[in-house]
């Protein structure tokens, strides 16, 4: 069975309602990075958004906490060059994880602990303006990195023939038309953090140490 993203069954179990990525986004201004961190609040694990700090020589940076709450690092309306019609484009993200002295942990689900380790992967979504749909949210199945100190680059093509999963764990190959529709009108793009079954369940470190720094994120037209 294909691993689920933040599947409907998991969302119900956690009481999670995934809001549009722009909800709660802080205004840009001096020192703003243009990137937002989506994190789960302790009360009800609601997804909240906050502006991230710019990284020296890079795009954005944030510190992990001792709770598995970091779920998304995304660019929305402030990064128009990354958004819009991205169908067929190639995404490339380069980042560094540093200073982690404790172990990485993901919010527990039926696959973790006991499944794959906490990870980060490529992600994009389209607008819910016309009504919510699972196929408005897409995660790269293969473009992922197991969280540990180090530097990595993730690359994927935004194509139905590539390995992507929607909110309900359905593949892009079996939903080619809806995938293409979402990819043709990308309203938020970036990285998600989670465990094996839930690609956006949230991660942290056991002692609250560690920093994630996004050096670059590019979307290259076909």
Give a brief outline of the structure.
With 222 residues, the chain is mainly beta.
Task: Spell out the blueprint of helices and strands.
Blueprint: H1 8-14, E1 35-40, E2 47-51, E3 60-63, E4 70-75, E5 90-98, E6 104-106, E7 119-126, E8 137-146, E9 150-157, E10 164-166, H2 176-183, E11 186-194, E12 203-205, E13 211-220
Antiparallel strand pairs: 1-2, 1-4, 3-13, 4-11, 5-9, 5-13, 6-12, 7-8, 7-11, 8-10
Q: What would you say this structure looks like, in words?
A:
This protein has 222 residues and is mostly beta strands. The protein is 7% helix and 38% strand. The chain has two helices and 13 strands. The strands form three sheets. It has a seven-stranded antiparallel sheet with strand order 2-1-4-11-7-8-10. A four-stranded antiparallel sheet has the order 3-13-5-9, with no helix packed on it. A hairpin with a 6-residue loop joins strand 1 and strand 2. It is globular, with a radius of gyration of 16 Å.
Query: Low-confidence stretches at least 5 residues in length (pLDDT < 50)?
Result: 1-31
Based on helices, strands and strand pairing, what is the structural class? Answer: mainly beta
**Average residue-wise pLDDT:** 84
C-alpha end-to-end distance: 32 Å
SS summary, helix count? 2
List key phrases describing it:
222 residues; mainly beta; seven-stranded antiparallel sheet; four-stranded antiparallel sheet; 7% helix; disordered N terminus
């Amino acid at each position: 069975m294909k691993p689920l993203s933040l599947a409907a069954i998991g969302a119900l179990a956690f009481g999670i309602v995934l809001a549009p990525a722009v909800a709660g986004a802080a205004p840009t201004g001096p020192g703003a990075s243009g990137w937002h961190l989506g994190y789960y609040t302790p009360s009800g694990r609601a997804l909240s958004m906050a502006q991230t700090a710019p990284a020296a020589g890079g795009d954005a940076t944030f510190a992990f906490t001792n709770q598995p709450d970091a779920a998304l690092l995304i660019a929305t309306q402030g990064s128009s060059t990354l958004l819009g019609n991205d169908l067929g484009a190639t995404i490339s993200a380069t980042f560094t994880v540093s200073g982690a002295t404790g172990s990485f942990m993901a919010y527990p689900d039926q696959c973790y602990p006991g499944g794959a380790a906490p990870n980060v992967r490529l992600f994009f979504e389209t607008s819910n303006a016309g009504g919510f749909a699972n196929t408005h949210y897409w995660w790269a199945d293969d473009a992922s990195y197991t969280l540990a100190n180090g530097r990595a680059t993730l690359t994927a093509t935004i194509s139905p023939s590539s390995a992507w999963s929607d909110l309900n764990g359905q593949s892009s190959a079996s939903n080619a038309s809806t995938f293409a529709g979402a990819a043709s009108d990308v309203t938020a793009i970036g990285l998600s953090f989670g465990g094996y079954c839930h690609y956006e369940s949230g991660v942290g470190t056991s002692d609250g140490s560690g920093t994630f720094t996004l050096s670059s994120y590019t979307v290259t037209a076909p």
